[in-house]
């Protein structure tokens, strides 16, 4: 790597306040806010809105969408007019 053109890469704490969850990792992201970590060192902290502890996919609280009902409702509303087979006969 060329020296002097890349951002600094160091330890950063990402914190999800809604879930009360934080983790220490390395990143080029920086912050003026700092937090004292479990090891006694102070690291920059970046607050995030969603993490693996608060995202519905990871927590098992996902909602299943009724895609079959949506297709049926679309067909009922607009009808099924000229399928793909009709278009291919014109060639």
Automatic annotation (TrEMBL):
Q: Which GO terms describe its cellular component?
A: ribosome
Q: The organism sits in which domain of life?
A: Bacteria
Give yes or no: UniProt keyword Membrane: no
Is Ribonucleoprotein one of the keywords UniProt gives this record? yes
Pfam families annotated for this entry?
Ribosomal_L31
Q: Where is the signal peptide?
A: none
Keyword list (alphabetical) reads: Ribonucleoprotein, Ribosomal protein
- Family stated for the protein in its record: Belongs to the bacterial ribosomal protein bL31 family. Type B subfamily.
Looking up HAMAP family in the UniProt record yields: Ribosomal_bL31_2
- Provide the assembly information: Part of the 50S ribosomal subunit.
Q: What is this protein called?
A: Large ribosomal subunit protein bL31B
List the source organism. Answer: Streptomyces catenulae
């Amino acid at each position: 790597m060329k020296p002097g053109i890349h951002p600094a890469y160091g330890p950063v704490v990402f914190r999800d306040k809604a879930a009360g969850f934080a983790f220490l990792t390395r990143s080029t992201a920086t912050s003026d806010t700092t937090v004292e970590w479990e090891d006694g060192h102070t690291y920059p902290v970046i607050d995030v809105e969603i993490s693996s502890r608060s995202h519905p996919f990871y927590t098992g609280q996902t909602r299943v969408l009724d895609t079959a009902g949506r297709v049926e409702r679309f067909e009922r509303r607009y009808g099924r007019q000229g399928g793909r087979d009709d278009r291919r006969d014109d060639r």
